Structure formats: structure tokens, C-alpha cells
Amino acid sequence: MSAHSALAGAPGNRLYVGMRLTILGSGAACAGAGGNSSGYLVEDADIRILLDCGHGVASSLVAMTPASEIDHIFISHMHADHFIDLLPLRFAVTKEMSGLPERRSCLHLPPGGVASLTQILSAVCFPTDFFENVWRVREYQAGEVYELANGLEARLASGVHYIPGWAIRLDGASSLTYTGDTAPSPAVCDLAAGSDLLLAEATLSEPEHGPVRGHLTASQAADLAVAANVGQLMLTHFWFDADREAIRAEAAQRFPRSVRVASDGLVTEF
Known about the structure:
Order of helices and strands: EEEEHEHHEHEEEEEHEHEHEE
Structural class: alpha/beta
Strand content: 25-35%
CATH class: Alpha Beta
CATH architecture: 4-Layer Sandwich
CATH topology: Metallo-beta-lactamase, Chain A
Radius of gyration: 17 Å
Shape: globular
Helix content: 10-25%
Number of helices: 7
CATH superfamily: Ribonuclease Z/Hydroxyacylglutathione hydrolase-like
Strand order of the largest sheet: 1-15-2-3-4-5-6-7
Number of strands: 15
Largest sheet: 8 strands, mixed
């Protein structure tokens, strides 16, 4: 695995074999100063997939690549720090295209996501077809396999969160599993099995106890990586005051392979 600044190579520079992951946002609901909430650009051959679109992600994305060139958008769950920048991203598409695009990307939402976005659109006085006249809007289901293009597949599994949340796996030239927001989950572990890279949230400094759980500690993320036998672990979804090096060190005590922490602008090829 190699890594470099996002400035070193814009998306579309196909000098690598495998997948390319660009961290657009690695923060939780309140990211650090100048940082973004959840957002990850995955490239495989000529396909570009955006995983989540939290606060600040749209601006970082359009600084790198035209919004209209994103082929698929997957939203892991309907918390604002994972989807709210769909609003500015949609405006970026129509501005670039000077109107509605001829080729529509696909926006993949969790079950119930369409109804949630409709409520948001009503609250901000936007038309109900605001997203649908730019993107093909779909709701995904656990267990289904989505053929994206060129042999690239997406699968999903439900996690354990305060609202329904989903982990997303992409299999193409390489394999990546993104946990979304989840507490320890056998279904997410099964989904991640054998992935080349596990992109796992590590929000908590202490594990949650009791019946309501929704996040992982760094140690729990590492335990997930061990149980799923993944090749590499990258931790993400940090609060504004997180000590990321301490988080990495905690996970490294339990996962014997490569452990890294996500940071906005980081590019990883694997």
C-alpha cells in the first residue's frame, strides 16, 4: 500500500493497479478545525464511488474532480454527518453541466432514506424532485449484490447503531469494506471477511455498555480486523479533540498488520 497527499495525483490518474481511496472527511459529527465529517472517494478502473457525504465533503470533492463524474454515491445511514452535503453536491453537478446532466449517477440510500430526504427538502423549501432530476435514486437492501460496472460489485450488511446503519463492501481490482457507524457487529465482520482494506470507525475512547450502542473504540475496530482477517486497517470518524496517534497505537496492540489513521486529503492505493 502506498500513500501520498491528494495534491500528488488527481483522481483519474490511472498509474496504479487496484483501488484508490481518497479521504475527503475523517471527522465525526463535530470534526476538528478545518476538517470534514465522513466522506470517502473510492476509484476502481474508471469507476468513482463516493461513500458518505458529510459536512464539508462536497467542497473537498469538487476541488479534486467534477461532481458530475461520480458514478455512484452510497450513504451508510441517515445521520447528518454522513449525508448532509448531498445538498451542495447536487448544486455542483448542475453548475458544472449548466443544467441537468444527460448521464445520471446513482444515489444509493438506506431503506427509508428517500422519505428522510423528502422531509429535509421540504424543510429547506426545495422541490421534492431536487435529487431525482440529477441522480437516479435507489434504496438498497442487505444481502443484495449490486453490479456497478467493469466487474466492480457492492454489498451491504446492517451494523449496530442508534438508527439503522449499514456497512458497505466494494470488490473489484481490490476489496474494501467501510463499516459506517457501528458497534461490534457479527454481520459487519462477515461482510469484511478477507478484505484487503478495512476502513473502520474508531469514535470512542471507552466502550459502550448497556442496550444502546452505536460506535467502536480503536481496540474494538482492531478486534474486528483480526476476526475478519483483513489485510490492512485504517481508522476513521474522529472527534475534534481525538489523539489520532494514540488511537492508532491502541489498535496496533491488537492488530498485527498495518494500522493507519485517516486524515483529510490522504490518498491510499492498494
